[in-house]
Structures are given as C-alpha cells and as structure tokens.
Amino acid sequence: MATVISPWILGGLFFWVKGARHMPRIYDGMECVWAWRYGPGADLKVTAEAGVAWDRHVEQLKECVPKDQLVFYDVREGWGPLCKALGVPESKVKGVPFPRVNDKESLEKHFEGLAKQGIQRWLMFVAVLVGVGALASRWLA
C-alpha cells in the first residue's frame, strides 16, 4: 500500500486508527534500516535491486554463520522443512494449519481494512463538524 500511497497521505488516513497512525514513521524507519543494511539508494521496491540486496545478504550470512547453524527455509514449504531444521517431530504439528499471515494477499487485505477504518472515521469526524456547524449557525441566527 505504501508503494501506491505516499507515507504522508497514509499518516492522515490512519490518524484516527489506533495502532496504525504511526505506520508512516515505522515505514520511514524501515527505509533507514534498509539503507544502512543494503546501501544508500537501494530501492527495494525495484525487484532487480531487491534481488541483488538479498543475494548480498545471503552471502554475508554464509560467511558469518557456521554451516551447521545456518538454515535456509522457504515458508511456502510449510511445516516439514521447518520441523526438520528445528529437530521437532512433524507429528507435533499434525493438524495445525501453517500460519500464512505474511503473504501478499493477507497483507493487502489487512491494509485495505485499515484504510476503510480510516476513511470511515474521517467521514464521522467531518459529519460531526458539519452537524456542530449547522447547530451553531441555527443557534446564532
């Protein structure tokens, strides 16, 4: 969503949504961390640059983390490889659905809900202002 709407507009949109009003500052902070980690000017929204940054990150991990402690895992593979890496029998998670709350669709749905909340709350705020203005103009007339 932040790639479609500027952080400044997000701040206004989410102003009345508890827990979301600080999102633009969080986003700015993340961009600072990305710049520190991947170099200034690295635009991680550009797939090619993100791929290069990711490859550099993986190489650094391979250099710094002992091989017997390093595990690369794709969450799309579910419980199996994760249980194997952690030494946990897969039977312990049998029947437990794998959480998929950080995929693109879930995040888009979540942000869409936050945006709807923000719009509804701004509409309520404006309606109250208009109502108070109408009452005040009648009272003063």
Automatic annotation (TrEMBL):
Membrane-spanning segments: 122-140
Keywords per UniProt: Membrane, Signal, Transmembrane, Transmembrane helix
Cross-referenced InterPro entries: P-loop_NTPase (IPR027417), Sulfotransfer_4 (IPR040632)
Leader sequence residues: 1-19
UniProt key word Iron: no
Database matches in PANTHER family: P-LOOP CONTAINING NUCLEOSIDE TRIPHOSPHATE HYDROLASE PROTEIN, P-LOOP CONTAINING NUCLEOTIDE TRIPHOSPHATE HYDROLASE
Name under which the protein is recorded: Uncharacterized protein
